[in-house]
Amino acid sequence: MSINAGIGTQVPTLRLAGLPGFPEIKPGDDLAALVVRGVRRAGLDVTVGDVFVITQKIVSKAEGRLARLDTIEPSAIARQWSTASGKDPRVVELVLREAVRIVRMDRGVLIAETRHGFVCANAGVDTSNVPDGWAALLPEDPDASARRIRDGLSAGFGCAVAVIVADTFGRAWREGQTNVAIGLAGLSPILDYRGQTDPHGHRLQATAIAVADELAAAAELVMGKTRGVPVAVVTGAADLGLVIGDGSARELRRRPEEDLFR
Fold it and tell me: Residue 106 and which of 28, 35, 60, 192 are 20 to 30 A apart at CA?
């Protein structure tokens, strides 16, 4: 898939390619090695600055961040909320264990803040794309997960690449979900335009684009939820001026003192 836009003869281009054919991921699997094999199987060329977007689910599986529901004993509050929401009480219990703060429990929706600082539905606990009777939890440290995979990919391809660990989040005030970056390595997550001037000479005061989230969202279009495509390769990011280097998904979390909606 290509996304093109430009002015005059300059046509900035991003190329996105999904990598199908991955096996069912098991705890201990080497994701970097599997991705390298997937790229070679697809006949793709990898160059400096390419960005690999990897779904959180396979990272959690490889790191053993899975819970057997028949081992979970729901608490009284989990059972109470389960009755009110129609959710499995064992899943609700996992959400409560993964959360540091319950933001909202209403109309069958449970919004929680995780220990990572993410505010999302069900604290990231998910029973999709896992075997029956299991639930997947978010990685303990998604940035560290991204760094490990990035190091393996850079060694495998012989050039510096970036990695985004992506998960699907809902959005306040808008319908539908979109992928966002929850872990990051090798890429600055924000493209800051503040202090620059637009074509009309206006000085930009507040524009800082969450490019890691935008890349994660674009990659989801070629990955999908049911295609069995857990990895996408994005080529051309460096040509658009995105900064390849140190970065962390933590930079995308708004500080509590600046959050108008807490």
Answer: 60
Report the half-sphere exposure of 219 (CA within 13 A, side-chain side).
32
13-50+58-65+140-158+221-244: CATH number:
3.30.1330.100
- Whether this prediction's pTM lies above 0.85 is answered by yes
Buried b or exposed e, range 212-238, using 16+ CB within 10 angstroms: bbbbbbbbbebbeeeeebbbbbbbbbb
Q: Apex CA 244: angle with CA 242 and CA 249, to 5°?
A: 85
* Distance of alpha carbon 25 from alpha carbon 160, whole angstroms: 25
Tell me how crowded residue 153 is: count the other CB atoms within 10 A of its CB: 26
CA dihedral 44, 47, 50, 54 (to 10 degrees): 50
**SS3 label, residue 154:** helix
Tally of CB atoms within 10 A around 31: 24
- What pLDDT is recorded for position 243? 67
60-73, pLDDT tens digit by residue? 999 999 999 999 99
Per-residue pLDDT tens over the stretch 102-121: 998 888 889 999 999 999 99
Q: How far apart are CA 87 and CA 108, in angstroms?
A: 8
